[in-house]
Each structure stands twice: as C-alpha cells, then as structure tokens.
Amino acid sequence: MDGFVVIDKPKGPTSHQIDHWVRTITGESKVGHIGTLDPGASGVLVMALGKAVKLIDIVHEYPKSYVFVIGFHGDIGEKRIHELTEEFTGEIYQLPPVRSAVLRAVRVRRIYAIDVLEISGRDVLMSVKCDSGTYVRTLCTDMGLLAGTGAQMKELRRISTGPFNEERMITLQQLSDDFISHVPERSLIPMDFIFRDMPKIVVKNSALRNISHGSDLFPGGIKAVLGSPRKGERVCVVSEENDIVGTGKMLVSVEDIHDLKVVDFDRIFLEPVMYDGKGDVVRSGEGREKVQVQKTHGGSFRSTEGSKEWKNTGSRKHSGRRHSRPERNNTEIRKGKNKGRIHR
Q1: How far, in Å, CA of 168 to CA of 265, rounded?
Q2: For the chain, what is the mean pLDDT?
Q3: DSSP code for 99
Q4: Where are the domains of the chain?
Q5: Selection from 17, 13, 18 nearest residue 45 by Cα
C-alpha cells in the first residue's frame, strides 16, 4: 500500500500516536508523518505509507501554511501589528524551542507572507506561509519581543503542507470506515500527486535494469522530456507505463542534453533486477537463482556452470594439474640464527 493520507489531527495526541493509529488501521508497517505537530496543535498532518515514506524529504521541501492566535501581553495598536508582520516577512533567524524535535541551534527560515485576519483586544488571529521547519511558537515570541510587550502563541492550526490542504483531510474515523468497507482508495492519495507540477523525464524500458542497479540516467535512456527542467532542478523520472522510477536533480538543462549524464538520482523506487541470460528480466530473489561468475586470467567474466575447465578448481586433489614448485628436500641448511647446522 503506497501513497499518502491527510489526517485532520485533533488536539491532544502526539503526531507519533497518530502514526501508530494509522499503522493499526491500515495494516501497513511503513508509516511516517510529514511535519510534527505539537499535542496542542491541530490540522493537516500528512501521513506517508509504504514506498511513499521515501518521499517524505521531498514533501518537506514544500512550504507550510498555518492560522494562529497570538496573545500580546500589553496593549498594541493595529498599525503596529501590521508593521510587525512586514518586519517578519522574508528571511528570519530562529532558535527552536527548548522542547523541540530538532537540534537547538540558530537557523534561517523564510516567511513568505503574514496576514492579519482579526483583532480582538490583545489577541490577534493571523495566517502565515513559511518554510518547512519554521516554529510558529517562536515566531510569536519574537514578535512580542520586538513589539516591546511580550507575546505568546495561544492557538495553532496547520491548513496546508505543500499541495496537501484541508480539502483533502479526513478524520481517523473516516479512515477506519474506508478500510473496514474495503475501499481504501477513497482515503489514499497516489504517490505521483506530489509530482503533478514537477518536470518529468520518461525513460525507455530498456534502461530500467541499469537504473535499478544504481546507474544514473544518460541521454541514451531517455524517451521524452515533459516540461523544461533546468540544471539543479528536481525532476520525476517515470517509465513508459507512467510508473514512478525515481527522483533526482538535473545535472544539465534540457537544451544541453547531449552526451553527459542527465539526472543524478537521489532515490529509486524500482526493485533491483537481474538478467537471467535468456532474455528475461527477473526480480532479485524470484525465479532463477543467481549465476555465479569467476574472473579468468584474461580479465573477462564467465559462468562457472557447465564448464569442465572450471570444475574442481581450488581442490589440489582432483584438479589434475601438475605443480611447478619443486619438492622440498628432507635435508636443508637453515640460515640465520642456526646457520651451519643441518636439520633432518
């Protein structure tokens, strides 16, 4: 079971408790959440299932949006509140809270927009769009320090994580109902959903074997390029059947694709496959056993099966070969410390 589920996290449980409940409901052992929410926060909690767990880092690259209530500790005018939102838009420095899931070190995060939605006395309802890893609690504290009154976050709700928003949310009860009714597709969002706006490269089926064994993508394996990917941009690589092969960074822009390597893969979704010698591609661990190979003196590789020349190699008793090393005399003169003595 591979894909995403967007849970409407209620206040109270931790994000890891939601992981456990989703794992129990779906029966899928590989489950991970994208972006931790504190127990007191609610809203969009994206869960990755199966192979989609490999895409968690990619979803983390998308910005997140929140609505929150900030409570100032002193009186503050509406004009000053709007000035604060402008001053905190752009790149800011943040020190994560003492109780957080990351290393407590100063780091840079980008605030794309902060909007004032409602003002009620010292409490202000705001919305923010920010980089992944931004702590809204710390943002409220810093805004209070700059205002000179002090402030703290009172409420927090996440409304989107990249392309996943509140419209796609379901409750844990809805998820359970769908699996009990044997209609999990009503809850599950396919893996390719996060690549809908990303450039894609279609590879030939003949290139899949090499890619599954770790080869990067070269021009000879490309069938089509969808979009205009630039150097350094992330792309999704798909097969001719539109199955996800992997993701990676472009090493050249689309117009510079000639002879050099095109994509440097950072994750592969194909299972390793091997060539069985008869024109069939067999998945590792299935079908025929792997054929052992042994290196000859000439440097090439050859099969050890069915070859008389290689049978019993390594066994001096059955090899039938004569050894050129001379037989050792029973009588010899040792050098060194016991020089001159004859030993028998």
Answers
A1: 30
A2: 80
A3: S
A4: 3-61+164-192, 64-161, 198-270, 281-310
A5: 18
Rounded distance between C-alpha atoms, residue 111 and residue 145, angstroms: 18
The whole-angstrom separation of Cα 235 and Cα 4 is 20
pLDDT of residue 302: 33
Architecture per CATH, 64-161: 2-Layer Sandwich (3.30)
Q: Which residues are catalytic?
A: 38
What's 162's DSSP letter?
T
Provide the token pair at 327: 């037989």
Residues in a beta bridge with 35: none
Task: Please indicate whether residue 102 or residue 90 has the higher confidence score (pLDDT).
Answer: 90
Domain 198-270: what homologous superfamily? PUA domain (2.30.130.10)
- What is the average pLDDT across 42-51? 95
Residues 280, 270, 215, CA angle at the centre, nearest 5°? 85
Handedness of CA 102, 106, 110, 111 (dihedral sign): positive
Residue 48's CB: how many other CB atoms inside 10 A?
25
> To which H or E segment does residue 9 belong?
strand 3-9
